[in-house]
Amino acid sequence: MGNRRQLSQITTMVIHCSDSPNGRANTIEDIDQWHRERGFKRDLKLAPQWQPQLTAIGYHFVIELDGAVRPGRPLQESGAHVTGHNHDSIGICLIGRDQFTQEQWESLRTLVQSLSDPSSPPHLNIRTICGHRDLFKGKTCPNFDVADWLLNGCTPPRANILPEVRQ
Ligand SMILES: [Zn+2]
């Protein structure tokens, strides 16, 4: 019961953005706080040792500006990130609105490729990789076309790359 699930139930990877200003260095702890304020709640009984300081976060992974992949909910716990598909999906969130750093794009590619390979741990059977907006009409998140990105060999669209900060 509750939010526990079998890894075999996971078929979909959903990519999000945090919708915070491009280039602003928000962290997974910030998102955890925002989600707590919205009433989200993790089931900490499910995996008490797993990131116990994050009590609300709805995503399974957050990719911060420096490319760090920060784990949120354990995969065995359904997320809280996409209406109708929380039970069968993994939620991955890029910090930013519609422009992400090269490091974030690189980490996203590596994470998506490793999670979608059934022969390597955690041995998932991912059939769909998409953006939030592809599952929930009316949303624009993550503000780029995930299918195009995949078709282009995970090359980020130029318009969605955060320009280098000039001193
Ligand atoms: Zn989203």
Description:
The protein is α/β, with parallel strands linked by helices. The protein has a single domain, classed as 3-Layer(aba) Sandwich (Lysozyme-like), CATH 3.40.80.10. 20% of the residues lie in helices and 13% in strands. It is built from four helices and five strands, in the order E-H-E-E-E-H-E-H-H. It has helices at 28-37, 102-115, 132-135, 146-151; strands spanning 12-17, 61-63, 69-71, 89-94, 128-131. The protein has a five-stranded mixed beta sheet. A hairpin with a 5-residue loop joins strand 2 and strand 3 (69-71). The chain is globular and about 40 Å long. It starts with 11 loop residues before the first strand and ends in a 16-residue tail after the last helix. The model has no long low-confidence stretch (mean pLDDT 95). Zinc ion binds next to loops.
Helix content: 10-25%
Which band does the percent of strand residues land in?
Answer: 5-15%
Cα-atom radius of gyration? 15 Å
The neighbouring-strand order within the major sheet is 3-2-4-1-5
The fold-level CATH name is: Lysozyme-like
Protein name: N-acetylmuramoyl-L-alanine amidase
Pfam family, one: Amidase_2
Keywords: Hydrolase
EC number: 3.5.1.28
Feature tags:
Lysozyme-like, binds zinc ion, 5-stranded mixed beta sheet, alpha/beta, 13% strand, single chain, 167 residues
Describe how the helices and strands are arranged.
Elements: E1 12-17, H1 28-37, E2 61-63, E3 69-71, E4 89-94, H2 102-115, E5 128-131, H3 132-135, H4 146-151
Parallel strand pairs: 1-4, 1-5, 2-4
Antiparallel strand pairs: 2-3
Pfam families: Amidase_2
Protein name: N-acetylmuramoyl-L-alanine amidase
Organism: Parathalassolituus penaei
